[in-house]
Design a protein that fits this description.
Layout lengths: L1 H53 L1 H7 L1 H25 L1 E3 L6 E3 L28 E3 L6 E3 L14
């Protein structure tokens, strides 16, 4: 009788061990499926990106709505990036794309000459008397004594 009880407990322990290892294995496999699914989506996205870059006319014909959405988003991103540069008082190097102070004549990274700039442009209705922060290069209104971006004192 004690021997039967011992065997029952042993079987019970083995059953629990098997169920536990099966559950852990299933969780691991589920995580692996999720990772592979994410990787597959990234591959599909890259295929689409390369297709659009290599066959823009065909992509525009076959995927007119998605192509229009992509172009709209690209334009919105470019506009926002231009606004960021303007707020910082910077521009991009014409050769390498490095961010430079707006009035730079040469790129500090690649040395390329930059187009001549007479003065910083003033937007319609914008106060022309402003200062550029020496710490972060953000343009600040003349009425401010500290930088709006980093808090540095006006020079």
């Amino acid at each position: 009788m004690a021997e039967d009880f011992g065997k029952k407990i042993e079987r019970f322990g083995q059953d629990i061990w098997k169920k536990t290892t099966d559950a852990v294995g299933a969780i691991g496999k589920s995580a692996e499926v999720a990772n592979k699914t994410r990787d597959l989506k990234a591959v599909y996205a890259e295929i689409g990106k390369q297709f659009v870059e290599n066959h823009p006319a065909q992509a525009a014909d076959e995927f007119a709505d998605l192509s229009a959405q992509a172009k709209q988003l690209q334009q919105e991103i470019a506009d926002l990036e231009a606004q960021i540069l303007e707020q910082r008082g910077t521009k991009k190097c014409v050769a390498c794309g490095e961010e430079l102070p707006y009035m730079s004549s040469f790129c500090s990274k690649c040395g390329a000459a930059q187009p001549k700039v007479e003065s910083e442009p003033a937007a319609e209705g914008e106060v022309v008397d402003e200062w550029i922060c020496p710490i972060c290069s953000v343009k600040n209104d003349s009425s401010r004594e500290t930088c709006v971006a980093c808090g540095a004192s006006r020079p």
